[in-house]
Specification:
Layout: H1 13-18, H2 21-35, H3 45-55, H4 58-63, H5 72-78, H6 86-107, E1 110-112, E2 118-120, H7 129-134, H8 137-154, H9 159-166
Antiparallel strand pairs: 1-2
Helix pairs in contact: 2-6, 2-8, 3-6, 3-8
């Protein structure tokens, strides 16, 4: 069973900040913009969950490759320990990402196309320079790695093969 979200007044401040719909929507927008760069027609919520579950987990984020030349499958073989708890982290993040996608749909920063894929919307949901200048190094890394995951997962094969490599189900 998927966890339910507390109302805002009951969420701890760190949860509200890190998993807030506007922050996750902007990360999703960054991911989606890079995912479609090679002409893809968007992606599923599943791949978005995979990407953000990876970048929001410090150990996984810090061990991601810096080039899309490294295959997902080779990386998983070299980092199998990171898969411990991955499915649980992804499942726990899913309600927050659904909330972020709904926020994105409402603000037209995320759209769902005819094929049912998520795509960046007509409005931008990126991080302004003033935010980046004042934020932490960790937040900058999360943003950068979200973009990388968009490019990397776009080159990593089908949703089914990505799921198989990570030992999860769509």
């Amino acid at each position: 069973m998927m966890p339910r979200l507390d109302i805002w007044a009951r969420r701890p401040p760190e949860e509200a900040n890190l998993f807030g719909p506007s922050f996750l929507c902007a990360l999703s927008h960054e991911f989606l913009r890079d995912f479609i760069k090679d002409g893809r027609d968007g992606t599923s919520l599943f791949l978005l969950v995979i990407a953000l579950s990876t970048v929001l987990h410090r150990s996984s984020r810090e061990r991601l490759p810096y080039s899309t030349v490294t295959s997902l499958y080779a990386w998983v073989q070299d980092n199998e320990d990171l898969l411990i708890g991955f499915a649980s982290r992804a499942q726990n993040l899913t309600p927050y990402l659904k909330e972020a996608v709904l926020f994105g749909l409402a603000t037209k920063t995320v759209i769902i196309n005819e094929a049912g894929n998520l795509r960046p919307g007509k409005h931008r949901a990126t991080f302004p320079k003033s935010f980046l200048d004042d934020t932490t190094t960790e937040t900058k890394e999360i943003i950068d790695r979200s973009k990388f995951m968009g490019r990397w997962l776009a080159k990593s094969g089908s949703e089914t093969s990505v799921a198989a490599a990570l030992g999860v189900r769509p």
